[in-house]
Specification:
The structure holds two protein chains of two kinds.
Chain A lengths: L11 E5 L3 H12 L3 E5 L23 H11 L5 E4 L2 E9 L2 E8 L14 H5 L5 E2 L23 E2 L26 E7 L1 E4 L4 E2 L6 H4 L7 E3 H8 L20 E8 L16 H15 L5 E6 L9 H10 L4 E13 L4 E8 L4 E6 L1 E6 L1 E2 L4 H8 L24 E3 L9 H16 L27 E6 L11 H9 L4 E7 L4 H15 L3 E6 L2 H14 L7 E5 L1 H5 L5 H19 L8 E4 L4 E4 L3 H13 L4 E4 L22 H13 L3 E4 L2 E9 L2 E8 L4 E7 L1 E4 L4 E2 L13 E3 H9 L10 E5 L16 H15 L4 E6 L8 H10 L3 E4 L7 E5 L2 E8 L4 E5 L3 E4 L3 E2 L2 H11 L26 E3 L9 H19 L3 E4 L4 E3 L9 H5 L6 E2 L5 E2 L10 H5 L5 E3 L4 H11 L5
Parallel strand pairs in A: 1-2, 1-9, 2-3, 9-19, 11-17, 12-13, 12-17, 13-14, 20-21, 20-22, 22-23, 25-26, 25-31, 26-27, 31-42, 33-40, 34-35, 34-40, 35-36
Antiparallel strand pairs in A: 4-5, 5-8, 6-7, 10-18, 14-15, 15-16, 24-43, 28-29, 29-30, 32-41, 37-38, 38-39, 44-47, 45-46
Chain B lengths: L7 E6 L3 H10 L8 E6 L7 H9 L4 E6 L10 H18 L7 E5 L5 H18 L3 H9 L1
Parallel strand pairs in B: 1-2, 1-3, 3-4
The chains are: A alpha/beta, B alpha/beta.
Chain lengths: ~1000, ~140
């Protein structure tokens, strides 16, 4: 599992690809104190995400959640972003690589560009790029305001000979003579997150009419039409004539699950979900009367609770689903209709009239995949995605090089994020042990100025000179110096930004300034920079206020007099606020570096091994059973036929022999207390229920799920009725001689996708195909029927499904409302089911009836866990993660992580990914000496609190509680700083640091001074 | 007398509306300079007190700008703000200042255009309403 090189000294990692997987891997590594280089072919980070309007299943806009993180990657952490850059060679070995890089010219000097946008106006159409990919004049990235790097680039192919427009740049950042640059970085490991490309349906024009009929669009194009910031600016019109479409059809599997070149054999895994999302979004927000129909072969919503999303969209939103084989789109010139021709499920030729057709195009490997793999020296799978294996799910063929996200094949955002955290964890094992960085930096002691008369220093910072063009600085300086409490006013003008900041530090010290206002650009961009600067001058960062006289003044008020007057107002407001400012302290709490892992299955063991190998502390595994291994002990082989047992046994042996891991088996967690960095958990073990307490800094819950024991289909009544796991045992005997193997009927979705358990079992389809193939291998003449509702075979699992069909396994579909029946007659077991193509009932007398049963949440066990660890459960009974999409292994409780089937059913591969990911997330905390608890949180003044519980109910994160002294207490480590409690508190006993009521009112009072 | 120029305080949340206002800047979309923005972490932090205080001190209108519904960075702070604005409106009606002087809008971080439009609309509305009656009262008292 690990290829740790003992003498690794490097602390750096190269991440290739700046999509969501690459960003997540970079953030995890940087948070764990690593130096990260992120390279991307395009001019800015983001990958696909900024192009998407909404994401399933929450239908929210995740760029809104990610962009603050991205901005973070632009500032505090040690992440160096190298856009327009590719890898040309990777020399050396794990722990000590030299990565050779080549950067294409941007034609804009990033150090000089202030993203002012002047060039956008002056340059020839389309030559200046600001947004990732799409036309800037209908900018996607208006949903994506924090492009990193926040700067423009130039597409030289769009330029004409006349370069006079380049003079428009106020800082002279346009450098058309730039050439490509070669560079090399020393890194200990590489994470490949190069993503995928959308399948281009143009070569299939004869079938789908894409490129021929304007109203046939791809799903990504449709996403842009839906977007408020897209080319139609939020109005819902079809391309050909601008008419509002009434009937839209989505065609699934365009370019996927097909033998027709250039289509791909595999399943692209996420198109079912995004088609449903688009249909739902279009109906909900644009046209309730829209006739939205999805034309599909199998619906494959396989992620956590995705099945419920499918049912909701089908039954509550009224999106139509037509199971069929769509084959041709034609155009009816007279009615301006599109016609979709398809073969119905019953095999009849049918037609649908549509106003618009959306092609749910799949994904394929980037065109550069092969060159890239060669440069990296890694193997690709037959489809040009990076090859990995079930027991090393994020490892490539070259030690020290890991992969995540769509680089490993099409997958959704949660899977990409988990793999990213897992790859970051694996990369860490090739680096020098994390430096647990001491937190005291070379900073002067903070001056205690809380009680001092305010001496405000006001600094005008116009880096780039954009503000000055509109705002009269002389007037402003003169005005501001006359405001009461202002001790010093200065315009920061020096050659470089750093010199300006140094000058600021000097002035603060020189003049004894104790409150600072910076008037310049938005605090969103430069707040951290100036806060750090005043800290260097010995002032607490809480004593900074910013007046945004660029974005919210000079750029929106072209009139000089108006902008200058408003600048005065904004600065006066900031001064009013900063006079009331108080220090915001970051304090440090001790951090226990040991970890507790609850659950000794594959997910738990992966997490424990990774943390133990890093060697930051001890790891304790608490296992309920007598042995390690969990559900994997029941498995014999994986879908590709490779044996499971030896790999699981090797893993168990590694855990048992690792000096840093203690296993407590036959044990239960009985109590749990404390907070991140200092948890105490009580465990009872053995027949005597021996009680002990474990101290640990982080917790990983990986207790797994249990197999559903069916009551349906005569299970337990007729010995011929088995579960897939029991079938697997039978097959493992290895000779195929068992009489039970003659005629096998398998029934899918037994105990899932029904009222009692609406979830999809996720892995049962793959288990059925695996066992069917195994049986065919042992006994080619065996008769096998698989009765199914949808075959859900993601990515290359689709190939196994195809192979099974080729080998004569009969797949017969049934509907949820017409399930098969099993009955006994004349001492014989019979199965009766409807064949939709023959349109009649068939009867089979099987030698074995195998039920594909799901993993389900063990109700009592999870309830106990949820209670002890204070976690929430989903309606399907599993534990709930912090954010199903972006934080799939984090719990809402800091320091507590979740992995494996305790979240939802997982395959072996996925369980390991989650175990590694949880360890990786834990590492971001453990790689420090102590825990910094940030300020900017809500504080309760105990003697004012009436314990009325308003804050307890109002907090969106359930942080406040009434403590033993009878007043509300808010844990600063858990508080997210929204201030809802402060606003709701009737006694005003709660104040949010940095946004205290007198600070906010200080601003408005200053604005309104003298109005009355 | 010169034309009435209303003073408008806009409380904008860090994650959406304040960012949208910045985007309006990046896109050079102008709106009336009457609108002065106060940044808050979440509109859920905007207290009834803040709104009333601003009006009491002579602001002619108060605008609260948060994330669109369902997209609040802090889950539902914007919905709480909406309730409070509703409460303030009733209060203003009952004391004769007029509930129309308080208003809540919702937008995503990228909707610079929407911010500029809402700012212009609200300014125009307040211009129609005329000065905050409290000002006249204060003058009379003086």
């Amino acid at each position: 599992m690990s290829d740790k090189s003992v003498n690794a000294t490097s602390n750096s990692v190269l991440v290739i690809g700046g999509g969501i997987a690459g960003i997540k891997a970079s953030l995890d590594l940087a948070e764990a104190g690593r130096k990260v280089y992120v390279i991307d072919r395009s001019p800015a980070l983001g990958g696909f995400l900024p192009l998407l309007d909404r994401q399933f299943p929450t239908n929210d806009c995740q760029i809104c959640f990610l962009s603050p993180e991205l901005a973070k990657s632009g500032s505090e952490l040690d992440i160096e972003v190298l856009p327009l850059t590719t890898l040309t060679a990777l020399e050396g070995e794990a722990g000590a690589f030299t990565a050779k890089l080549k950067s294409e010219p941007r034609y804009i000097d990033l150090d000089l560009c202030t993203a002012c946008g002047e060039c956008l106006k002056a340059a020839p159409e389309g030559a200046v790029r600001f947004t990732p990919g799409l036309d800037h004049r209908s900018p996607t990235c208006m949903r994506y305001p924090q492009a990193v790097p926040m700067a423009y680039s130039i597409d030289k192919s769009k330029l004409t000979g006349d370069d006079s427009w380049t003079k428009c740049c106020p800082t002279g950042a346009i450098k058309l003579d730039q050439g490509p640059q070669d560079n090399a970085v020393e890194v200990g490991a590489v994470v490949v997150a190069t993503g995928a490309e959308l399948f281009d349906p143009t070569p299939m024009q004869e079938l789908w009419g894409y490129g021929k009929f304007p109203d046939v669009v791809t799903s990504l194009e449709f996403e842009r039409i839906l977007s408020a910031s897209g080319p139609t600016l939020g109005s819902f019109n079809r391309p050909s004539d601008g008419r509002r479409p009434q009937r839209i059809g989505w065609i699934q599997c365009v370019g996927s699950r097909t033998t027709k070149e250039p289509g791909k054999l595999y399943c692209s895994s996420i198109c079912c979900m995004f088609a449903m999302k688009e249909a739902a979004w279009a109906k909900e927000h644009f046209a309730d009367d829209l006739d939205a129909t999805i034309f599909f072969m199998d619906m494959r919503p396989m992620g956590k609770d995705y099945e419920q999303y499918y049912q909701r969209i089908k039954h509550e939103l009224g999106v139509n689903f037509v199971r069929c084989r769509p084959h041709t789109v034609t155009w009816d010139a007279e009615n301006k209709d599109l016609n979709l021709e398809y073969l119905s499920e019953e095999g009849k030729a049918s037609k649908a009239k549509l106003d618009m057709v959306v092609l749910a195009t799949g994904f394929c490997a980037p065109t550069t995949a092969q060159a890239q793999a060669q440069a990296l020296g890694i193997d690709l799978d037959p489809y040009q995605f990076v090859a990995a294996s079930d027991f090393a799910p994020v490892s490539t063929s070259r030690p020290g090089v890991y992969a995540c996200g769509m680089a490993l094949g099409p997958r959704d955002i949660p899977d990409s994020i988990m793999q990213a955290s897992a790859a970051a964890m694996q990369a860490s094992l090739n680096l020098a042990p994390p430096k647990v960085a001491p937190f005291e930096q070379a900073l002067p002691a903070e001056r205690d100025v809380a009680e001092d008369e305010p001496k405000v220093g006001v600094f005008l910072a116009d880096f780039g000179g954009n503000t000055k063009k509109v705002v009269d600085f002389d007037q402003v300086l003169q005005y501001v110096s006359g405001i009461k409490g202002v001790a010093h006013v200065e315009e920061l003008s020096a050659d470089s930004q750093n010199a300006c900041l140094d000058r600021m530090v000097e002035a603060i010290k020189e003049k004894g300034i104790n409150r600072v206002v910076v008037a310049g650009s938005s605090p969103r961009g430069q707040g951290v920079l100036f806060a750090n600067t005043i800290r260097r001058a010995g002032l607490n960062p809480g004593y900074l206020e910013m007046a945004n006289i660029l974005e919210q003044d000079a750029w929106v008020h072209p009139d000089n007099a108006v902008a200058t007057a408003k600048a005065k107002d904004l600065i006066r407001m900031a001064i009013g606020g900063v006079k009331k400012a108080r220090p915001i302290f970051t304090h440090h709490e001790p951090l226990n570096h040991d970890a507790l892992v609850v659950g000794g299955g594959v997910a738990g063991m992966s997490a424990a091994l990774a943390l133990a190998e890093l060697g930051l502390g001890q790891v304790t595994i608490v296992e309920r059973g007598k042995e390690l291994g969990g559900m994997a002990r029941n498995l014999e082989r994986s879908l590709d036929g490779s044996p499971v047992r030896p790999a699981v046994e090797a893993m168990i042996a590694k855990v048992e022999t690792n000096e840093r891991i203690t296993v407590i088996s036959d044990a239960l967690v009985v109590d749990h207390d404390g907070q991140v960095g200092a948890f105490v958990t009580g465990v009872q073990s053995g027949p005597g229920m021996y009680y002990q307490q474990i101290n640990h800094g982080v917790t990983i819950l990986a207790t797994g799920a249990k197999e559903y024991k069916p009551s349906e289909f005569l299970y337990g009544q007729d010995p011929k009725v088995l579960t897939q796991l029991e079938m697997e045992k039978l097959l493992a005997k290895g000779d195929g001689s068992d009489a039970a193997l003659e005629t096998v009927v398998m029934i899918q979705c037994v105990g899932s996708r029904n009222d009692a358990n609406p979830s999809c079992g996720r892995i049962c389809c793959r288990s059925a195909v695996k066992n069917a193939l195994w049986l065919k291998e042992l006994k080619p003449e065996a008769q096998i029927y698989v009765l199914y509702r949808d075959m859900r075979m993601p990515y290359v699992a689709e190939e196994a499904y195809r192979k099974a069909r080729e080998q004569g396994v009969l797949f017969v579909r049934f509907s949820g409302d017409d399930p098969p029946e099993a009955y006994q007659e004349d001492g014989q077991l019979w199965v009766r089911f409807t064949d939709k193509i023959l349109e009649r009932k068939l009867v089979v007398a099987p030698s074995a009836l195998v039920l594909s049963t799901p993993q389900i949440a063990p109700d009592e066990e999870i309830e106990e866990l949820a209670e002890i660890f204070r976690l929430q459960r989903t309606p399907s009974g599993y534990l709930m993660e912090d954010h199903v999409k972006l934080k799939p292994v984090d719990s809402p409780i800091p320091g507590l992580f979740l992995a494996g089937s305790v979240l939802a059913p997982k395959s072996l591969n996925e369980a390991q990914v989650q175990g590694l990911a949880a360890a990786g997330r834990a590492l971001t905390l453990l790689a420090r000496e102590s825990l910094a608890v940030e300020g900017g949180v809500a504080r309760v003044q105990g003697d004012m609190c009436a314990a009325c519980l308003v804050c307890v109910r109002a907090c969106p994160f359930e942080v406040p509680f009434i403590n033993a002294d009878g007043y509300s207490q808010i844990d600063p480590a858990k508080c997210q700083g929204c201030g809802v409690c402060a606003a709701e508190c009737p006694a005003k006993a709660i104040q949010l640091q940095g946004y205290q009521d007198d600070q906010i009112m200080g601003r408005t009072d200053a604005l309104l001074e003298g109005v009355l | 007398m010169a034309e009435f120029e209303p003073i408008i305080v806009a409380f904008a949340c860090h994650y959406c509306a304040y960012t949208a206002a910045d985007m309006a800047g990046t896109q050079r979309l102008t709106y009336p300079a009457n609108v002065k923005i106060v940044k808050v972490p979440c509109t859920g932090k905007v207290d009834t007190l803040h709104l009333m205080r601003a009006l009491q001190k002579g602001a002619d209108g108060v605008l609260v700008a948060g994330c669109i519904k369902g997209d609040c960075h802090f889950k539902n702070g914007n919905l709480r703000a909406e309730k409070r604005v509703g409460y303030v409106k009733k209060l203003l009606d009952s004391i004769g200042v007029g509930g129309d002087r308080a208003h809540m809008v919702f937008m995503t971080a990228g909707q610079g255009k929407k911010f500029a439009e809402e700012a212009a609309l609200f300014t125009e509305k307040i211009r129609q309403l005329g000065p905050n009656p409290i000002k006249a009262g204060a003058k009379k008292a003086a």
